[in-house]
Every structure is written in C-alpha cells, then in structure tokens.
Design goal:
This protein has 152 residues and is mainly β. Strands 3-7-4-6-5-8 form a 6-stranded mixed beta barrel. Strand 1 and strand 2 form a beta hairpin. The longest helix has 7 residues. The termini are far apart. The C terminus is likely disordered.
C-alpha cells in the first residue's frame, strides 16, 4: 500500500457510461502458457463469484491493457476475459461492502482458478480487503442505466 492515500469517503465509484470497446486489449492473448479469449460483449445479468485480490504501487503509473495509465486510487479492475471496458458492481461477501469499478486491465494471473478479479488499491480500501489481501466477492455487470453509487 502507499504511504498516503485519499480519504476513502471522498472516492466515488466509477460511473458507468456507454463506451465503445477499447481498440487494444480485447484480442486473444497468452500469459504463462494459457491462452485467453476476451468476450465480445457482456450479457445483461452477467455475474460471477470467486476471489478478488488487489494491486497497487508496483503498477501505479504503468499502462493498462486498454492503454489507460493505471491509477491505484481510481475505481478500476483487471479481469482475464471481460471486454474492455466493462463496468462491474463488486460486493465483498465477507462484509457486504460494494463498489462499482471500470475494468480496464487484464489479470489476475495468480495460479488459482478461484481468483476472478484484481482490484485497484482504492477499490480494495473501500471494500475493506486491503489487510486480508484476498476475499470472496460477487461481481455483476452494470449497464449505464443501472448507475447506483454507494449509499444510494
């Protein structure tokens, strides 16, 4: 984690909006000998349950898979096969905290099938998972018309 970070109460969820698919980051790719084929689209109602981890300072300022600059304090995430970008509501199943993130990167590539998403440090703070490192989550696709922020 960083030496200092924004007050979590001042960090807003990602705001789902209609965006075209990224020109980069949506083609099939290979990591550690495994081939991944990103989905061309996400169906309304898409959801998945598994483990979430987070990534932070080591990647801060580096280029993400869709060409964005990684900001560890932004509400973003990495997923192996969802289209870039996709908006997800992520719920920590241990404490029911939830956030909305924008998927703009690829990963996680931990050697476990249970790991489904890597969250930015900022999202991890708001989900109360920084200390644990890995928690059980449920992710659901969010369409622009379903925009609902924390506390509403």
């Amino acid at each position: 984690p960083p030496n200092s970070s924004p007050d979590p109460s001042t960090v807003a969820d990602a705001v789902p909006r209609s965006e075209p698919l990224s020109r980069i980051g949506n083609a099939p790719y290979q990591v550690f000998g495994t081939r991944y084929v990103p989905m061309p689209s996400v169906a309304v109602g898409y959801s998945e349950t598994g483990e979430a981890s987070w990534y932070g300072r080591k990647f801060h300022g580096r280029t993400t898979s869709n060409g964005d600059e990684y900001d560890m304090f932004a509400m973003t995430a990495a997923h192996k096969t969802l289209p870039l970008p996709t908006y997800l509501r992520v719920r920590n199943l241990n404490n029911d905290q939830e956030v909305v993130v924008r998927v703009n990167d690829r990963g996680p590539f931990a050697h476990t099938e249970r790991r489904i998403i890597d969250l930015s440090y900022g999202a991890a703070v708001l989900l109360g998972m920084v200390e644990a490192g890995v928690v059980e989550v449920r992710v659901e696709a969010v369409e622009p018309w379903q925009n609902r922020s924390r506390g509403s």
